[in-house]
Design a protein that fits this description.
The complex is a heterodimer of chains A (about 150) and B (about 575).
Chain A (H helix, E strand, L loop, with lengths): L1 H4 L2 E5 L3 H13 L6 E4 L2 H9 L13 E5 L8 H10 L8 E5 L4 H10 L3 E4 L4 H17 L7
Helix pairs in contact in A: 2-6, 3-4
Chain B lengths: L1 H5 L5 E4 L2 E4 L6 H13 L3 E9 L2 E10 L1 H7 L3 H4 L4 H4 L8 H11 L3 E7 L9 E10 L3 E8 L1 H23 L3 E5 L5 E4 L1 H7 L3 H4 L10 H13 L6 E8 L1 H4 L6 E11 L6 E9 L1 H77 L5 H44 L4 E5 H11 L1 H6 L3 E4 L4 E5 H17 L8 E7 L8 E8 L30 H11 L4 E6 L3 E9 L10
Parallel strand pairs in B: 14-16
Antiparallel strand pairs in B: 1-2, 3-4, 3-7, 5-6, 6-7, 8-9, 8-12, 10-11, 11-12, 13-15, 16-17, 17-19, 18-19
Helix pairs in contact in B: 12-13, 13-17, 14-16, 16-17
Classes of the chains: A alpha/beta (about 150), B alpha+beta (about 575).
């Protein structure tokens, strides 16, 4: 699938263990895409807007964001809000991947413009399964190209 | 008497039937002039002749003028030629003839102001101002005028003055008059008493003297602003205690000042009426203090209640955040434990292949590690994570119960109890339990919450029944607590194993489980129930005797407070 191969995945996750487990499970479900990791909301924003430590470099396109909510510096809501408020990033699909399953937070994220909301199950079998299904989803989604 | 010698005396003298002017060394023209004056003047004039110098009964009237006729009501023809005693018999009593005779004898004029009654019966009682003066030839002239009106006015003025003075003196108010520069011209008794000084010492002193400097300036200014055109001012000032005999304390006086002109109408004085308002000031200050205290207390209460709301919000938020943040590491523990298991499986088959190549000690150790130690460690990690996960879920549930929006409706507790008992049939049979349900009312409550409360309490009652005797559970309600008339009390009484006194404080604490841990449970049932009861504005408590039984009581208000159903 040449078109999906191009999609870069920005994984915004402050817990390196989670990031590693997500990555492992995505790879297991044959997601071969380039995965870029950001440890907090600010890093994600810097990467997306080519600022801070990413100053001067344009983010790759097409791009897809896997976003946790409880993040240091800027939280997931703020990242989502900024992305959806900016012409350059509003078309980038955002998948919320978080431990929170509170209904109000789910709907708040959709209100802010997230595309998919996935809860990380504590049970690892379920976690793997969720990530595997997400990988399958990623292999078939079409992502807009901003270039 | 040289003066009288020189003065022209004009008399209207009786010459029966005629009036003729008698001239004494003056010219005819002047006689006429003086005659006209005497006839027209507004004073009575009578002339008497003392015929026998030693006998005052021989004073005979020889002349009179029209004013005298008018004042006495006696015509000249009735008086002239008669003696004084014949004309006014009443006068002797008062010594008038004697006085007139003396004037003749001594040649010295006399002035009298007397209440004189000309009539025997006193009909002409009046005040007369009289001047008797000597005339030549043993004569006496009597000038008189009626001063009754003037006298009455004076008298009433005097009486008024006395009355006014009495009023001033008897006032408990301090009364004084002062010049615009503050110099006292009058003080009343109360004023003297107040300042504990003699009147003589105060008069001439400055009104401003006992005032502290700041007040002096203020009152001076108000004094200066007073005039007859702008006559009234009110002012207050302090008095340093020494002068008031109040031993050093500061006292307050309030005054009403009025600009008046003095008795002569020459200068302006300020009349001041004042009273001590120290008590009022003190009361006002006290009142202000109370108001300030009250305001502060109010603010404190508001702040405290805000603090409570905030704290309770924070606790809810805290439980929520903690439960989520605690979950994140659990995902790692579970995840990497699973990864380890997967790796172990790979290692296991590799090691199995390699085992024959190892010596016996190494083989035993490798086998032990692969088949027992590592799986056991993973087992503990996973079961601990599971327990941790259950705790977190329990806390999360408690936090959600505290946040969930309650829907108040009329709820039939009886039906809820029956449904709960139905679901517990199996356990009840196991304990050969006998259940008694008293009449239970409808209450206004959240249905789901009521189901959870009743479900938990009845579930506990059954769970902890003593296995060695038939169970007894009793559910009752009462409504008649005088101090809380809107409240229904529900009792759930069992004859189970009971709770030790030491464990009573654990009953409603999260994760605490009283007694033997032989019955499964996460220790969150009663904390949930307590949270739900409290959200209904109710209370819950329990009484228990180990080996005898336990009674849980909770209250539900008939009319829960509005606004209690917030999330």
């Amino acid at each position: 699938m040449p078109e999906t191969q191009e999609v870069t995945i920005l994984l915004v996750e402050d817990d390196p263990g989670h990031a590693r487990l997500i990555e492992k499970n995505l790879r297991r479900s044959n997601v071969a895409n380039n995965i870029v990791k950001a440890g907090d909301g600010q890093q994600a924003i810097d990467y997306l807007f080519g600022q801070g430590e990413h100053a001067g470099s344009k983010p790759p396109s097409p791009l897809l964001v896997l976003l946790d909510l409880n993040l240091p510096v800027l939280d997931g809501y703020q990242v989502l809000q900024r992305m959806k408020a900016d012409e350059r990033t509003k078309h980038i699909p955002v998948i919320i991947l978080t431990t929170t399953d509170d209904r109000r937070e789910v709907s708040r994220c959709y209100d802010l413009g997230c595309n998919v909301y996935v809860t990380k199950p504590v049970e690892y079998a379920q976690f793997s399964e969720a990530i595997r299904k997400l990988g399958m989803l990623l292999s078939i989604v079409t992502v807009p190209d901003s270039r | 008497m040289p003066e009288t010698q020189d003065v022209t005396i004009l008399l209207v003298e009786d010459d029966p039937g005629h009036t003729r002017l008698m001239r004494m060394g003056i010219r005819e023209k002047n006689l006429r002039l003086y005659g006209a004056i005497i006839s027209n003047m507004q004073m009575g004039l009578q002339v008497y002749q003392l015929e026998k110098p030693e006998d005052d009964r021989t004073l005979k009237m020889i002349a009179t003028n029209p004013a005298a006729t008018l004042f006495t009501g006696l015509a000249p023809e009735d008086t002239v030629g008669k003696t004084l005693d014949e004309i006014f018999p009443g006068l002797r009593k008062r010594g008038i003839p004697q006085i007139y005779a003396d004037v003749v004898r001594t040649g010295t004029p006399v002035e009298l102001e007397q209440e004189v009654c000309y009539d025997e019966d006193g009909a002409l009682d009046a005040w007369w101002s009289i001047r008797a003066f000597p005339l030549p030839d043993h004569r006496v002239g009597v000038l008189f005028e009626d001063v009754t009106l003037k006298k009455q006015t004076e008298e009433s003025l005097r009486r008024n003055k006395v009355r006014y003075q009495a009023i001033l003196e008897d006032q408990t108010e301090l009364i004084c008059r002062a010049l615009p520069d503050g110099t006292l011209t009058f003080v009343n008794e109360a004023y003297c008493r107040y300042f504990d000084q003699e009147r003589e010492g105060l008069i001439g002193q400055s009104l401003f003297l006992p005032m502290p400097g700041a007040d002096q300036a203020k009152v001076r200014e108000q004094f200066a602003s007073l005039s007859l055109e702008n006559p009234v001012a009110r002012f207050e000032h302090r008095v340093t205690g020494h002068d008031t005999g109040h031993d050093g304390e500061i006292r307050w006086l309030a005054w009403a000042g009025r600009a008046i002109s003095d008795d002569q109408g020459h200068r302006v004085e300020i009349q001041c009426v004042g009273r001590d308002i120290t008590e009022r000031k003190r009361a006002e200050a006290q009142l202000q203090q109370y108001a300030a205290d009250l305001e502060r207390a109010n603010a404190d209460v508001v702040r405290a209640s805000e603090d409570v709301v905030r704290a309770s919000e924070e606790v809810k938020q805290f439980a929520y955040i903690v439960s989520h943040d605690l979950r994140a590491p659990l995902v790692n523990l579970k995840g990497f434990a699973a990864e380890l298991r997967a790796a172990l499986a790979v290692l296991g088959s590799a090691v199995t292949t390699a085992l024959p190549h190892l010596d016996e000690r190494q083989r035993e150790e490798a086998t032990l590690a692969l088949q027992e130690d590592v799986p056991e460690a993973l087992e503990f990690i996973e079961s601990s994570v599971d327990r941790m996960d259950r705790f977190i879920n329990a806390v999360l549930k408690l936090s959600r119960l505290g946040r969930r929006e309650l829907r108040f409706e009329s709820v039939d507790v009886n039906a809820i109890v029956q449904a709960t008992l139905d679901s517990l049939t199996h356990q009840l049979d196991e304990h050969r339990a006998e259940v008694t349900v008293g009449p239970l009312p409808q209450v206004v409550a959240d249905r789901t919450a009521m189901e959870q409360i009743v479900g938990n309490l009845l579930g506990n009652a059954v769970k902890y029944l003593a296995p060695d005797r038939p169970g007894k559970i009793e559910i009752t309600a009462e409504h008649d607590h005088a101090d809380r008339p809107n409240e229904v009390r529900f009792h759930i009484r069992d004859n189970g194993r009971g709770i030790a006194a030491d464990d009573m404080d654990k009953v409603f604490a999260p994760f605490r489980r009283a007694g033997k841990h032989d019955i499964p449970g996460e220790g969150m049932g009663l904390p949930y129930v307590q949270t739900l009861v409290r959200r209904h504005g109710g209370r819950i408590w329990c009484e228990s005797e180990p080996g005898v039984g336990t009674t849980f009581t909770f209250t539900i208000s008939d009319h829960p407070a509005e606004g209690d159903n917030h999330a």
